[in-house]
C-alpha cells in the first residue's frame, strides 16, 4: 500500500509536466510526506486537455453537511489492480499523480523511501463529487526486489512514454495497452529504483545508506 509520497518542488516537476504537455502547473501542491485524506495534485483530461487539478487523496467520500469528507467505512487511498475491470473509474476517469518518491514499510516497521532521482507519475483513478475531486493510487503486486521492504504491493507507475500517458488519460474501455504495466517493474526511464531507510514513515530523516535495486 502506498500511503505516503513526496512531491518535491526542487526536483523539476514543472519541467516534467511541461514535457508531457500538462497545463496549469501553477496549481501543483508541493510537499514531502503527503498523507492520505490530504489534498494532492493530479492530472486529468476532464476539460479536454491534460491539466493539473487538486483532489482529496481518498477515492470514496461522504456528505458532511454542505461539504464532502473521506468515507468512514471505505478506506480507499489505493485501488488494487485485480479489481480494476470492475471499477467504472478505470474506464472513464483515470488520472496521473505527479510524485518524486514514496514511502513503504514492512508490517508497519522499518520504513523506507523509494525514489528514482527524478519525477514520475503514479497511475490513479478519480471521482467527482459536485465541485470536489477525489483520487486513489493503483497498486500492483510487489516486485521480488521490493518484497523485503514491503511484501504486499507496489504502486503502479506510468512508463516514461508520452503515448502511454496520452492513452491513460484518454479514458475508454480498451485497456489492453495497460496490461503489461499491471505487472511489477522497478526501472523507470532507464534508471533503477533506489531505497533508503527512514527513522519513521513520515520523517525526512534517514536511518541508513541509499541502496540501488539493480
UniProtKB/TrEMBL annotation:
Q: Name one GO molecular function term.
A: single-stranded DNA binding
| One Gene Ontology term from the biological process aspect of the record | protein-DNA covalent cross-linking repair
Which superkingdom, per the lineage?
Answer: Bacteria
InterPro entries found in the cross-reference section = SRAP, SRAP-like
Protein name (record): SOS response-associated peptidase family protein
Species annotation: Microbulbifer thermotolerans
Amino acid at each position: 500500500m502506498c500511503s505516503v509520497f513526496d512531491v518535491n518542488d526542487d526536483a523539476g516537476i514543472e519541467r516534467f509536466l511541461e514535457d508531457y504537455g500538462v497545463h496549469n502547473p501553477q496549481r501543483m501542491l508541493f510537499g514531502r510526506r503527503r498523507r492520505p485524506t490530504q489534498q494532492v495534485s493530479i492530472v486529468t483530461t476532464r476539460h479536454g486537455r491534460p491539466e493539473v487539478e487538486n483532489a482529496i487523496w481518498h477515492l470514496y467520500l461522504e456528505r458532511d453537511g454542505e461539504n464532502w469528507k473521506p468515507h468512514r467505512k471505505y478506506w480507499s487511498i489505493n485501488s488494487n489492480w485485480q479489481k480494476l475491470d470492475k471499477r467504472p473509474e478505470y474506464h472513464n476517469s483515470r488520472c496521473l499523480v505527479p510524485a518524486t518518491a514514496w514511502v513503504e514499510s514492512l508490517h508497519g516497521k522499518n520504513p523506507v523511501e523509494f525514489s528514482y532521482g527524478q519525477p514520475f507519475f503514479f497511475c490513479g483513478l478519480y471521482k467527482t463529487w459536485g465541485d470536489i475531486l477525489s483520487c486513489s493510487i493503483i497498486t500492483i503486486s510487489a516486485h521480488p526486489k521490493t518484497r523485503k521492504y514491503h511484501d504486499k504491493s507496489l504502486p503502479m507507475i506510468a512508463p516514461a512514454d508520452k503515448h502511454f500517458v496520452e492513452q491513460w488519460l484518454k479514458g475508454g474501455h480498451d485497456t489492453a495497452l495497460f496490461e503489461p504495466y499491471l505487472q511489477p517493474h522497478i526501472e523507470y526511464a532507464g534508471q533503477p529504483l533506489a531505497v533508503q531507510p527512514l527513522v519513521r514513515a513520515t520523517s525526512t530523516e534517514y536511518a541508513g545508506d541509499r541502496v540501488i535495486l539493480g
